[in-house]
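BUG: 3D viewer hangs when loading the predicted structure for this chain

Environment: internal workstation, default settings.
Expected: structure renders.
Actual: progress bar stalls at 90%.

Input used:
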Amino acid sequence: MTSMDAGVAGGGIARSSVAPADLPMKDGRGEIEVAEEAELGSKTKRVKRRLTSRGATVAALIIAVVWTIPTFGLFISSFRPAELILNTGWWTIFQNPGFTLDNYRDVLLSPSQSSPQLGAYFVNSLFIAIPSTIFPLTFASMAAYAFAWMRFKWVNALFIFVFALQIVPLQMALVPLLQFFSTFLKPGQQWLHDVIPMIPVQNYLPIWIAHTMFALPLAIFLLHNFISEIPNEVIEAARVDGATHGQIFFRIVLPLAIPALASVAIFQFLWVWNDLLVALIFSGGTQDAAPLTQRLAEMVGSRGQEWQRLTAGAFVSLVVPLIVFFSLQRYFVRGLLAGSTKG
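C-alpha cells produced before the viewer hung:
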C-alpha cells in the first residue's frame, strides 16, 4: 500500500508537493494569466471611477477655468482701443465698453514700415518649427527602436548616457554651438544650398540643428518607453517571417507608435514655436530668419506703449499651436500614458 493509500485509509488527506497546474482555458490562456488580467481590469476600473467622479470633474473644471482666464483676457484686450487698454483693465469691459479691429488690421494688413508686419515672421516660424519637429522625431524614433529591440554592446550604458544629457542646461551649449556653426557650418551653407536647393540660404539650418540636438534626449526617452512595451511576440513573429530591422521599424513599430509620436510632436512643436532664445541666437536676429516671437518682443515699443499691438499679435501667434493641438488631441492622452504601466 502506498503512502497516499495509507493516508486515505487513516482518515487523513494526502498532501502532494507538486505545485497546482496552470490549467488552460478554452481560449488557450492559463488560469493564472486570466486571474492577472482580471485583477488589472479591476484596477483600471477603480482608477477610471476615481478620475470620472464628481469631485474630480469639479476640480478639472476649476483648473480649466483658472487656466483659461489669462487667454480670455488677452482675447478681450486684443479688440480694445489703445486708450482703454492703458487706462482700464479688460475685466471692466462692461463698465468701459469699446471694440475695434484696428489692432488686427495694424498687425496683419498695414503697409506702413512702422507696422509690425507679422506675415514674414509668421512664415519664418513655420520654416523653423516644422523641420525642427520632423528631424527630432525621425532620429529619436529610430534611436528608440535601436535601444529597445537591437542588442549591441553597451546598449544600456549608452541609453543612460543619452538620458542623462537632459541634465545639461541648454544655456551651457549655446556659446560652443554658436562658435562651431560660425566656424564650420556657415562657410559651407552656400555650398549646401547649391548642392541641395531645398536648404535655404537663410540661417535656418543652424536653428534646425540646435533644436534637434536639444530635443533628442527627451524624445528618445519618451519614445523608448512606448516602443519597448510592444509585445515581444509581435517582433519575434516578424523576425521568424524574415523581416529585417528596417521592415520591422517601418511596417510594425511606426504604425503602433503613432500616439507616442503625436504626443512628442505636440510638445516639440509648441516648444519651438514659443522659443525666442535659441532662434534669436542662431538666426542672428535678421528679418530673413527671425521667428514670430522675436517680433512680438519688439512690438511692445521702446517704452512699453504698444500693448494693443502686442495683444493682437500674441493672439495671432496662438492660432497655429491651437490647430496643431486639436488636430492631434485624440492621440495626446494615449501617447502620454504609453509605457507608463506594465501589462
